[in-house]
C-alpha cells in the first residue's frame, strides 16, 4: 500500500530547498534553488515556484496531501505571512496563500526555521524521546524552538523559542532587533569573530575572519580566540538556563555552523551552564549537539505538515 506524502519547503537567505517526504521522514524527491535575496519579492517567489514546479512534475506528486514550510523569520503563521530579515523583498509576504495557489489548494503549514529544525531533532535527532526540549541553531544568527509535553510548540505566530533575542547583558551592545545584549549579539558566528578581532586576534594567511577560523585558533590555544568562544558559551548558557527555568526543558540541542567548533564551544558551555542552571528543577539539564544536519529544515517542515494533518484527521 502506498503511503501519503507531504511536500516540504526550507526557505532561507541562501537557498530555497524543496522535497517530497514520507511519513517516516525519508526524503524521496528533492530540489533546490539559490535565494535571490536582494531582489524584489516577486522574484523571490518565482524561485519558490520553480522549486514547487519540480516537485509537482514528479510522478510521486499525486500522493502529496499537504505542504509544510519552514522559513527564515519572523514568520506569522496566524496570518500566513513571512518577513525574513535577510530577504528584504518579503515584508508581510502572503507566502501561505501563494503556495496554496501553486499547489492546487493543498493545506499549508507555516513555521519558523528554528521551529522546523526543532521538529526534525525531536522526530529523528538528538531530542528524540524527550518530551521537553529546546533546540537551537547557532550560525549567522541564533534561533530556536521548543518541544513541550511531547509536541512542537511553535506558538501562535510560529516563533516561540526564539532564544537569540533573549537579553543576557542589560548594558550590552545594541542588537539589530532594537534591544541590547541579546544572545545573538554575543554568540552568533559573526559576533564571535568580531569580538576576537576587537581583542587583537587576526586570521592566518588565506583565512577569512570567521567563527570557524576563530575556532581553529582556539583549538591551537590562542587566548583571545578561547575568550571569544567562552563569552559566546556564557551567553548561550544564560539563555538556555533562563528558558529551562521558565518552561522546564531538560535538554538543549545546539546545532548550526558555530556548533561545528565542537568542544571549543561545548566544553565552556557545559561549564557555564552549571553557573546559571542552579535551581533544583533545572540542575539535570543537559546539552547535546544536533544530529540532523542540512536536511533538518526539510524534515522539520514535513513533520509540521504531518502533525497538522493528523490533528485535523482526528477531529
UniProtKB/TrEMBL annotation:
It comes from the Bacteria. InterPro entries: ATPase_NBD (IPR043129), ROK (IPR000600), ROK_cs (IPR049874). Pfam families: ROK. SUPFAM superfamilies: Actin-like ATPase domain. Belongs to the ROK (NagC/XylR) family. PANTHER family: N-ACETYLMANNOSAMINE KINASE, ROK (REPRESSOR, ORF, KINASE) FAMILY. This is ROK family protein. It comes from Streptomyces ruber.
Amino acid at each position: 500500500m502506498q503511503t501519503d506524502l507531504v511536500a516540504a519547503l526550507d526557505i532561507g537567505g541562501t537557498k530555497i530547498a524543496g522535497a517530497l517526504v514520507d511519513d517516516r521522514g525519508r526524503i524521496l524527491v528533492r530540489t533546490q534553488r539559490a535565494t535571490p535575496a536582494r531582489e524584489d519579492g516577486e522574484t523571490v517567489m518565482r524561485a519558490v515556484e520553480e522549486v514547487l514546479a519540480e516537485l509537482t512534475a514528479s510522478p510521486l506528486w499525486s500522493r502529496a496531501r499537504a505542504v509544510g514550510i519552514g522559513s527564515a523569520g519572523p514568520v506569522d503563521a496566524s496570518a500566513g505571512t513571512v518577513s525574513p530579515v535577510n530577504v528584504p523583498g518579503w515584508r508581510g509576504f502572503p507566502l501561505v496563500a501563494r503556495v496554496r495557489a501553486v499547489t492546487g489548494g493543498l493545506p499549508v503549514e507555516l513555521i519558523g526555521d528554528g521551529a522546523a529544525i526543532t521538529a526534525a531533532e525531536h522526530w529523528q535527532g538528538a531530542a528524540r524521546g524527550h518530551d521537553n526540549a529546546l533546540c537551537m541553531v547557532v550560525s549567522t544568527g541564533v534561533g530556536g524552538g521548543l518541544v513541550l509535553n511531547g509536541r512542537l510548540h511553535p506558538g501562535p505566530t510560529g516563533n516561540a523559542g526564539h532564544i537569540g533575542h533573549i537579553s543576557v547583558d542589560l548594558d550590552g551592545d545594541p542588537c539589530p532587533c532594537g534591544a541590547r545584549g541579546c544572545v545573538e549579539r554575543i554568540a552568533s558566528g559573526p559576533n564571535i569573530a568580531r569580538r576576537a578581532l576587537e581583542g587583537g586576534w587576526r586570521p592566518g594567511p588565506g583565512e577569512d575572519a570567521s567563527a570557524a577560523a576563530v575556532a581553529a585558533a582556539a583549538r591551537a590555544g590562542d587566548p583571545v580566540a578561547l575568550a571569544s568562544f567562552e563569552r559566546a558559551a556564557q551567553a548561550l548558557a544564560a539563555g538556555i538556563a533562563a528558558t529551562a527555568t521558565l518552561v522546564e526543558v531538560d535538554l538543549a540541542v545546539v546545532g548550526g555552523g558555530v556548533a561545528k567548533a565542537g568542544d571549543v564551544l561545548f566544553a565552556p558551555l557545559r561549564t557555564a551552564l552549571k553557573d546559571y542552571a542552579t535551581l533544583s528543577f533545572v540542575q539535570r539539564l543537559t546539552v547535546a549537539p544536533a544530529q540532523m544536519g542540512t536536511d533538518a529544515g526539510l524534515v522539520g517542515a514535513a513533520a509540521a505538515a504531518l502533525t497538522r494533518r493528523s490533528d485535523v484527521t482526528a477531529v
